[in-house]
Request: fold
Amino acid sequence: MDIGSIRAYNRPRAAGITILAHLFGILAIILLLVWLLHYRGGVEYDSEYAARVFNVHPLMMFLGFIFLAGEAMMAYHTVPAERRTQKTFHMIFHLIAIIFGIVGLCAVFKFHDMYHLEDVYSLHSWIGIGTFCLFCLQWLFGFLTFFVSSSSDSTRIRMAPWHIAGGRALLYMAICAALTGLMEKFHFLKLGPEQNETRLINFTGLSILLFGVFVDISVALAHYV
Reply:
């Protein structure tokens, strides 16, 4: 099978997987908002109620490091456009994700201060902080290597596989942080197995995971388009 045939075969499949990714991404946003607004009292950074301040954290971290990061990956690999346009949207989405991440981290540190809790003690927080730091380094590396015109073509060719692999790994690290965070909150709230909120948390976690899986599959298929 020649290159043209491979592209013709994989293009509609990559597009179809992208649709599935968007469906699960939107579903995860809806479920997350239902949980935070209906069950957890709302989202407000400047609130005097600590729970509302905390709720900023999962919302911002998911929107930034999972949803927008996934959208950035798909925008670069699966959206038909000029390469410079793809790079621009890819970079902007990731930059917005970092801004959301900063807000989300500030919210959880503020929540800990309000309750006089320890910071960065759990596996969730270790994974989350590590993901945030590596995400920022990945963005800076990508900006200097692929967006700044002073980088040579040979350098970009050598670094591209590492950048792509790093982005996919960071997406799964962010998903791992989200799922461990949901389970940590579940145990903190001492929810019962038959409560509706428990089921909502589980379905939210599954939607987040499936969003990441379909983003990764669409990006993998796009390499053959």
Notes: DSSP finds six helices and no strands in the chain. The mean pLDDT is 90. The radius of gyration is 19 Å. Helices lie at 3-39, 50-77, 83-115, 123-147, 153-189, 196-222.
